[in-house]
Write a structure and sequence with these properties.
By secondary structure, the protein is mainly α. It has helices at about 1-5, 15-30, 35-60, 65-70, 85-105, 105-125, 135-155, 160-180, 185-190, 195-200, 205-225.
């Protein structure tokens, strides 16, 4: 089990969980719905299963690139600690557990669970054809506030959508920064990213980075005003 926790960097789940708590407690604080420990437990399980699926599938799909890249060559699959077959099996098990858990929450979460999985798993393909792959990663985590709002209420609302947009911008911007370290490798392997697309001279003053940052601040400011928060 320890090697699978290493495969998905399970300890880092704590950094993704606040995005889920945003939507959950937003629903409780702005609607008539009351706090429910069962729903909270199901929400946490869904976050864990979805993230496990996304991380394991990314490691599975990128295993050949990871083996070539000095920065990633010691990851679990290239290093031989986990086979590609077992990583894919781990992905499928977590996908099933994710959908199974949503069944006990409400209908809309259950019906939309394949859509959520399509987004978080689909990100792993996007570096092969678009430099906007960072947006898809951002969208994957950006689903968390909206999804957990649906866990509580079972219906859509504008406010959690705005928070999801803020998370999308925030994560996308940071992923662009993270990808700076692999821009040369991406170009050599015909992989797509904004740093690889723009080149070395422009990568640190990327207009998309500015767009994500400004969009994030605008969305968060609007959301905060809606909740009568001071920023």
């Amino acid at each position: 089990m320890k090697k699978y926790l290493s495969l998905v960097l399970f300890a880092h789940t704590i950094f993704a969980m606040p995005f889920a708590f945003i939507g959950f407690f937003l629903a409780i604080s702005t609607t008539e719905y009351q706090f429910d420990w069962t729903k909270l437990a199901f929400m946490i399980l869904c976050m864990v299963f979805a993230r496990n699926s996304a991380m394991a599938f990314n490691r599975y799909l990128d295993r050949d690139f990871d083996a070539k890249n000095p920065r990633t060559s010691l990851r679990d699959i290239p290093a031989g600690r986990i086979s590609a077959k077992n990583a894919l099996l781990f992905t499928l098990v977590n996908c099933v557990l994710f959908i199974f858990t949503t069944y006990f929450i409400n209908d809309i979460c259950f019906y939309l669970s394949p859509v959520a999985l399509a987004v978080v798993l689909g990100y792993s393909f996007t570096k092969r054809f678009t430099p906007l792959c960072h947006l898809i990663l951002g969208a994957g985590l950006g689903l968390a506030p909206l999804g957990t709002y649906l866990v509580v209420t079972g219906k859509f609302a504008l406010l959690p959508i705005l928070f999801s947009m803020a998370v999308l911008c925030w994560v996308s911007g940071f992923d662009i920064i993270y990808s700076l370290q692999d821009d040369e490798f991406d170009r050599q392997e015909n992989l797509y990213s904004i740093p690889a697309w723009l080149g070395r001279k422009k990568r640190c003053r990327s207009p998309p980075c500015c767009m994500y940052s400004v969009s994030y601040l605008l969305c968060f400011r609007y959301c905060s005003r809606s909740l009568d928060l001071f920023i």
